[in-house]
Amino acid sequence: MKKIESDLAYFKDESDALLRYPKEDFIRIVREVGFECDLCGKCCTKAFNDHVFLLDSDVKRILEIEDAGESVLIPSPYFDFCDQYGNFYVSGFCLKTKNDEIGTCSFLENGRCRIYDKRPLICRVYPYMLHREFDENGTYDWRQISGLNEHGFYETELDTEDASDLYDLTFQYEKEYIEQEQRFLKALSDHFEKNNLKFAQRIYDLKTREYEKGNEATVFVYFDGTFAERKAKMMNRDS
């Protein structure tokens, strides 16, 4: 499949770029910004962040939480592929949110995370990031920090050692994310070939419109080397 091949090439390029990125640049930038969390909890809502994508290692930790488990896991909301039978495929789970006005994370209670010690890696590194994306001017370049001037305190003192630790954790997340995407694409290619499936753009568009209108979708979620079948329905926060 050409799309899988092109996506694999993209993530290979992103992996190479990540390995080439100078650690000292990250340290300099985050020290200049001097971000400090103000415990506002905005990053734990859909009003501020679209969704919390989970690495396989995150899912395994969450599954160990007795009163949570699979109840808080839903397919990533942006479907990557669709076969000729209308089944969607995504590269991982994300955290379910409450059906309230701002889409609060299932684990946020009284403004605090109740699984703080087991929280997903993206939550540990946020608002730091280390990947390339387009800015508001259409320039494709590195992003090191998300949501500037939208939350938190700035120009606080951050020593080199702390900034270095932030780099290591952020690099770990980005590396694991890229590796998971690559595993997903390779597994998907094998799955399609084994089951005589093909990527169907027209069906993808049709089923996506139906999903956005409130219809239930069948989604196969990649996790730990296999595809888990789930049902997904777009949440309506106004209901």
What keywords describe this structure?
4-stranded mixed sheet; two-stranded antiparallel ribbon; alpha+beta; single chain; about 240 residues
Give the secondary structure arrangement, pairings included.
Layout: H1 2-20, H2 23-33, H3 56-63, E1 73-75, E2 81-82, E3 88-90, E4 93-95, E5 108-109, E6 112-113, H4 121-125, E7 128-134, E8 140-145, H5 160-194, H6 201-212, E9 217-223, E10 226-232
Parallel strand pairs: 3-9
Antiparallel strand pairs: 1-4, 2-3, 5-6, 7-8, 9-10
Helix pairs in contact: 1-5, 2-5
Folded structure, characterized:
With 239 residues, the protein is of the alpha+beta class. Helix content is 38%, strand content 18%. It is built from 6 helices and 10 strands. The protein has helices at 2-20, 23-33, 56-63, 121-125, 160-194, 201-212; strands at residues 73-75, 81-82, 88-90, 93-95, 108-109, 112-113, 128-134, 140-145, 217-223, 226-232. It has a 4-stranded mixed beta sheet. It has a two-stranded antiparallel sheet with strand order 1-4. A two-stranded antiparallel ribbon has the order 5-6. Strand 2 and strand 3 form a beta hairpin. Helix 2 packs across helix 5 (160-194). The radius of gyration is 19 Å and the shape is globular. It starts with a helix and ends in a 7-residue tail after the last strand.
